[in-house]
Amino acid sequence: MHPQRMGMAIRKRLCWICGQSMGSHVAFVGGPLSIAQRQFSDPPSHRECAEFALTVCPWLATGTHRRPDGMPAHTFIPAQHVRDNPGVFGLLITKEYRFAGITQAGVPREICWYTAGRPATRSEVEAAIEIARHSDQVKRYRLRDQILTMLDALPLP
Ligand SMILES: [Zn+2]
């Protein structure tokens, strides 16, 4: 996403999928690590727009799609960007968020899980959390125990 448009969407509380104003609740989509830390590389959207993306977006709905090399020069890629596809994605609903290099969501009102364009089962979510626990990203992280505690606290279907 173009950084200027991303900034405008965040400042004006616009849905980054449809461009329309969002209500009191906003939705974030991310893998288990993003959901656990409430940190997202994408801005928030309407819940309905996020649910639509979870069923049609190749990255979210196939579980195997990889980000291509050679993204356009203006593409904003946060430092904590995860390149591997987690296969299972959480939908986090909250009222608040702030932006500081990466989007930080507020207290979750609801978290539900999707895989392959449909609601994920409990065992699918548990497997994705287990993979996240052993990821290089967690191993390298300074506050490793803190992230593991956050992953353990995630609600399951
Ligand atoms: Zn929308």
Which tags fit this structure?
157 residues; alpha+beta; four-stranded antiparallel sheet; three-stranded antiparallel sheet; binds zinc ion
The rounded Rg comes to: 15 Å
- The DSSP helix count reads 7
Are any ligands bound, and if so which?
zinc ion
End-to-end Cα distance, whole Å, is 31 Å
Enumerate the strands of the largest sheet in spatial order, edge to edge or round the barrel: 1-3-6-7
Largest sheet: 4 strands, antiparallel
- Helicity level, as a percent range? 25-40%
Short description:
This protein is 35% helix and 19% strand. It has 157 residues and is α+β, with helices and mostly antiparallel strands.
In words, what does this structure look like?
By secondary structure, the protein is α+β, with helices and mostly antiparallel strands. It has helices at about 5-10, 30-35, 45-55, 60, 120-135, 135-140, 145-150; strands at about 25-30, 40, 90-95, 95-100, 105, 110-115, 120. The protein has 7 helices and 7 strands, in the order αβαβααβββββααα. The strands form 2 sheets. Strands 1-3-6-7 form a 4-stranded antiparallel β-sheet. A hairpin with a 2-residue loop joins strand 6 (about 110-115) and strand 7. The termini are far apart. The structure holds zinc ion (ZN).
